[in-house]
# Entry
Amino acid sequence: MKLNGISDNQGSSPSRKRVGRGIGSGIGKTGGRGVKGQKSRSGVSINGFEGGQMPIYRRLPKRGFSNAQFTSDFNEVSIARLEKAVEAKRLDAKKVIDAAALKEAGVIRRERDGVRILGGSEAKTKFNLEVAGASKSAVEAIEKAGGSIKMQPAAEAPAADA
# Structure
């Protein structure tokens, strides 16, 4: 087999519909938009409009409140991901592993509100972690392997002026 002989399976990538290219194409003239009216024109924006009737999003009562000030955006890292980084010699298991070390190793892209360790697999390496949080299964797996997890409070979001 040669590279110039490789091709996709028949019908796996259909050709693009060229809309509005003459009556003979089958999708010419109105281009599948029907005739006249708001929907046939560009820039239409009528989602939620119910023909003058009070829309459902205004008929139903508002419930609850989500305060963005108290939400946290954690980097979630699994034990398996930590093991891979140690095996690839990008992470030193003998040193304390925190968000800065994980960023330097390329395990996380950027430090957000902290790192949360997730379980799901057994830890073979003895980790010494300083993170914002961890699942129960992750704590059990790391302590079973002889490691330790020290929980740090999540990075505080700047308080809004009242």
